[in-house]
Amino acid sequence: MCKIEVPEPAEIMGGLYGDGIMARPSAFGPGFADRLCADIERLFEEALAIPGGALPRGPERFYVEVQPERIGGFVEIATHPWFVAVCTAVLGPAYRIVEIGFDIPLPGAADQPWHRDFAPPTETTHDRRLNSLAFNLTAVDTTPEMGPFEIAPGTQWDTFEGCPRGMFPPRELWPRYVALAQQKLPQRGDMSARSALTIHRGTANRSQQARPVLVVGVDAPGAINAQHHDLQITRDYAAQLPPRVLAHLTYRLVDRLEPVIQHHVIDGLLAPAY
């Protein structure tokens, strides 16, 4: 088997402290992504049947949090050399996986307002340090009609007044983000890492196909994003996990998986950005 090349720490730090996003094309094969897509489709159907199982993120757009053992390729993701190298360089060797979920913009999803995923911590605003990352893995080949993810590079350091928790920049600042914006068109098997504080938005899905994307949230020691999630694993699954994966999970141990009832509602995303 060929050794997978990973970037040097300086390149990783430059990418995530600079643009706030970087990618590893073809981290996995298309077949891996197809299996991921099948998992997501099944889990989305189940989540829709549970009150609080699928959170709206705007018209025809949802977020679902899931248990890692229900994603067939979770161990492959958590042990991928690129994933490990990025987490270690930015968050340190004691990084913790705190969230597994997926975004799914359906046909008819509207443009979101520009935003970040949570309030910037003082480690970022004061100490200029990133203490969390979000990894995205697309389950389909993205086309411009499918409502690509759009990001404004370098804006993870932006501060602004007059909005709840510093998450939604005032509309008078939107021209800055429009000018910086890059649309991402990842293909099956690609993996990216970003700071969830970098200003971004989902765009309108004008196709007839959903655009599911797996999200893996990772924290540095001391970060508190685990408080917003319920990452649970069964005792049987824990016994099967490689120790190097289990050591990096923040989890609740259960005898039987329970439905994940989500509470991280982002009210500002519930209306389209007109």
- Could you tell me the CATH topology label: Jelly Rolls
Strand order of the largest sheet: 1-8-5-10-4-3-2
Instruction: State the domain count.
Output: 1
Helices and strands, in N-to-C order?
Answer: HEHEEHHEHEEHEEEEEHHE
CATH class: Mainly Beta
Give the overall shape, derived from the CA principal axes: globular
Biggest sheet descriptor: 7 strands, antiparallel
Total number of β-strand segments?
12
Given the helix and strand composition, which structural class is it? alpha+beta
Content of β-strand:
15-25%
Which CATH architecture is right? Sandwich
Q: What is the helical fraction, as a range of percent?
A: 10-25%
* Rounded average pLDDT: 93
Q: Between the first and last Cα atoms, what is the distance in angstroms?
A: 51 Å
- Spatial extent as radius of gyration: 18 Å
Question: Tally the helices: what do you get?
Answer: 8
